[in-house]
Design goal:
Number of strands: 6
Largest sheet: 6 strands, antiparallel
Number of helices: 5
Distance between the termini: 42 Å
CATH class of the domain at 27-81 and 89-114 and 139-174: Alpha Beta
CATH topology of the domain at 27-81 and 89-114 and 139-174: TATA-Binding Protein
Structural class: alpha+beta
Helix content: 25-40%
Radius of gyration: 19 Å
């Protein structure tokens, strides 16, 4: 029974990480806009859109489905996590657009996730029954996922010579430089996390 309880606890922690952050207050409007937008000069709209798509394909290309729009794309990624007596499943939703304004490309990315879980609940006398955590949907909290996305986009575009790994990302979170959920690009359960060199 202890192993079952531990597995349920691990899965519940993974599921709840989409809602939990290490910072108590939400981003202000100004912080949110700084987190989700960037401006690029010297690039075409198509170059910026293609680079953003490449960031997601390197993270988990087999599982992303892209729908292209005039100024960008929508991308969805279905995911699941299974342990012996528990499972979590969900979908990440990415909205990216790059709008030309004169010589500047104004880029914006918004990420949200929807997830639910099911696990075995011990009822006593060796009996277990399924326990379902209903589906919930929310925007990704914090700045960690966005910071990593922009960092990798800059590398693809050639404005940075550093590709940030998930290990380096974890260190930045540990020291408080960035905070929040970054499972959309960094988790060991269901993201391949390839680098451009691979």
């Amino acid at each position: 029974m202890n192993k079952v309880f531990l597995q349920i606890l691990i899965l519940s922690s993974f599921f709840l990480s989409a809602c939990a952050t290490s910072k108590p207050k939400p981003l202000s409007r100004e912080e949110y806009l700084q987190t989700t937008t960037r401006e690029y000069t010297g690039f075409s709209q198509e170059e910026v859109i293609s680079a953003a798509e490449e960031v997601l394909k390197l993270a988990d290309g087999d599982d992303f489905i892209f729908s292209h729009t005039k100024n960008g794309f929508s991308a969805t990624r279905n995911w699941s996590v299974y342990v012996v007596l528990a499972a979590a499943m969900g979908t990440d939703f990415w909205q990216f657009q790059a709008v030309p304004q004169g010589d500047i490309i104004k880029a914006e990315v918004i990420v949200s996730t929807s997830s639910s879980a099911i696990s075995g609940a011990y009822m006593g006398n060796g009996i277990a029954a399924p326990m379902t955590i209903p589906a919930g949907s929310a925007s990704v909290a914090g700045n960690a996922l966005y910071d990593l996305f922009w960092s990798r986009l800059d590398y693809i575009l050639g404005t940075s010579d550093k590709w940030r790994s998930c290990k380096e990302q974890a260190q930045l979170k540990k020291v408080g430089v960035i905070w929040g959920n970054d499972d959309g690009l960094c988790n060991s359960f269901n993201v391949k996390d390839m680098s451009p060199k691979e």
